[in-house]
């Protein structure tokens, strides 16, 4: 049986989906030797794991959901402005991601796990060279040791999808790949994807990209986190990092409030700071959208997705975009759309075979 995996390897986060699991990890890792005193984290709760890849057999790496909690300046980042998909750092992250999904399948440990992979890129990267580089990085055999256990993965086929299409697939299709919201097939939809470092705005007419009403900007969610950190410093609050702020923002809300606990004896209320910064950032996002879209009157739906919509002020959005919709579980919406696309292909293939 050929399994189905979906990957969304962004500059800030890597999102992974299979039939058995869904994970979101940071898009950076460490040499295991650089963990230092944090070595005890390996294997304790499986939130940081060790990885060895056959494409770089001389080194063991550390990666996992809580890798950002390690205090170090030696992170290996996968951000690259030129030829990102050709870099060794990106290829290693592909190996680690596949291994993280494959570990749930006995075939990967006993023989070779065969799978198809759906992944995606921003619309600006959707060209022949980038697609070819991504397929080269993912397709084929991968041998990875995860916490000392050898996993063998064979990627038979790779599908590369534009990110906004993945978001719409998530809304269009049900979990089995069947169409459940037909309106998206004919609507003019704006997909606003708020990542950590970038803000992607894509307009699609009947699932076709309108490049004249699309664009990429650099004011991602980390602009908000930086503003919160600076406002906190002005009030004498120290010790906050962008990572800590991100966790605080995601855990809290306007009703229950936002708090920072620097130690077990102290709890600092950040509600006023975060709500103020949120409102300012939302207005910046609205201004960016307004300058990108030439004609908002023909837009049927505006979908806000990515890791960032949870940080927007929905009341501010609704005042400007009456038809706006914050995608549910927006952090993983796009990668879930990739996975649903694979399910839809499977349904079509089974239907064709039955005829």
Automatic annotation (TrEMBL):
Q: Which Gene3D superfamilies match?
A: 3.30.420.40
The record, for Pfam families, names: Alp7A_like_C, ALP_N
Top-rank lineage group of the source organism? Bacteria
Instruction: Identify the residues that the record assigns to the Actin-like protein N-terminal domain, covering every copy.
Output: 6-166
Q: Which InterPro entries does the record match to this protein?
A: Alp7A-like_C (IPR054368), ALP_N (IPR040607), ATPase_NBD (IPR043129)
Q: Where does the Alp7A-like C-terminal domain start and stop, copy by copy? A: 188-340
The protein's name in its UniProt record: Plasmid segregation protein ParM
Query: Which source organism does the UniProt entry give?
Result: Amphibacillus marinus
